[in-house]
Amino acid sequence: MYGKAFAPEYQGELGSVLGVNSSYDEVLATARHARRNAVSALDRARASLALAEANRRLGRVADAGDSWRDSYRSARQARDRGAMAWALWSGGTLARQCGTLPLARRLLSSAVELAAESGDRLAHGYSLAGLAETGRIQGDYEAVAETHEQLLAQARAHGESRHMVWAMSGIAQMHRNTGAYDKALELFEESARIAEAADDARGRAWSLRGIADVVSVQGDSERALALLSDAETICRDMDLAGALAYNHKMRGNVLFRAARYEDAGVAYALSLREFRDMNEPRGTALSRLGLIKSRSRHGHVDGHAPDATLAELAELEAEFKRIGLRHARQAVVAFRAELTEDRRREDRRVAQG
Fold it and tell me: Which of 38, 78, 112, 341 has the most beta carbons within 10 angstroms of its beta carbon?
């Protein structure tokens, strides 16, 4: 069984006035007021943590970075290892969002250690979850699958719906990326139901995106687009900049699979602008790949030669290698092979007259 979703990143007095569905404008205003009026270093650490998380989710990278560092310094001044762990969790999550995955691992590993020393179970669980998600994003499924399962079991045992949704969605994503679509769909749908029942709008938006991805792969593009529209409404209502950008990128994926290449290019171009505005290199690179593929497929109709496309793919492969995204790098290799084979077929056709 599980209870209503809650936001452990809003701590102390902030936890009594802010919740998982609080708008980020409200979080920023409340946390700024709390930091100005903080009477202790621990109070300041908690206020700065809330500021860091709100700014991060709004895509304000510089402000998020300043805030989590202020939270850590204040927590260290207060000699509170649990608060230090939460600050490093926030910093590690921001580093992952910015594509600096080695830094994310270092910060999150330190957060795990501090949380364990402090006895803060939630900080320990969230920091472990951050490490697991970093490995999953890199495609290191074998290393992190067990951690996801363990965290899901812990979340179920303690009735923590928000963490259940996170772990379940992560496991579903690994099943989806390894071709186990039915299992992935089952898990995404369960996580969406839990999120809705727990009043976790953000978790539901991410889960709907996962469902849309799988049903699109299975051929139902119209249902996928409708699900993404539902999720987009949630993202806009809550001003979830990052989730909205990934929603638009997924819309591009759905349209591309339906061979609606021009429409897909429009969606990818939108997500590319959004990710660039947030200084989010992973999303930027993925959107660039989608845009290249869409323009290439649409351009082939007009007889466009793929030389420039191959050059762009080489640049993107280097970027994915730098960030450490195995799955995305494999997608580049696969698409380049398709283009190369297309060119060979065209050359043979021309040669045969």
Answer: 112
Flag residues of the chain having pLDDT under 70: 1-5, 299-305, 346-347, 350, 353
Mean pLDDT estimate for the chain? 90
What is the pTM assigned to this prediction? 0.84
Are 175 and 18 spatial neighbours (Cβ–Cβ below 8 Å)? no
Q: Name every residue whose Cβ is closer than 8 Å to that of residue 134 and which is 6 or more positions away in sequence.
A: 92, 96, 101, 104, 105, 108
The CA–CA distances, whole Å, from 311 to 186, 302, 336, 350 equal: 39, 19, 10, 24
Whose tokens are 């591309």? That residue is 256
CATH classification of 139-239 is 1.25.40.10, yes or no?
A: yes
CB neighbours of residue 16 within 10 Å: 8
Interacting residues of 336 by C-beta distance below 8 A, sequence separation 6+: 310, 313, 317
Interval 106-155: pLDDT, tens: 999 999 999 999 999 989 988 988 988 898 888 888 888 888 888 888 88
**Rounded CA gap, 222 and 71, in Å?**
45
Kindly calculate the radius of gyration of the chain based on its CA atoms and give it in whole angstroms.
Answer: 21
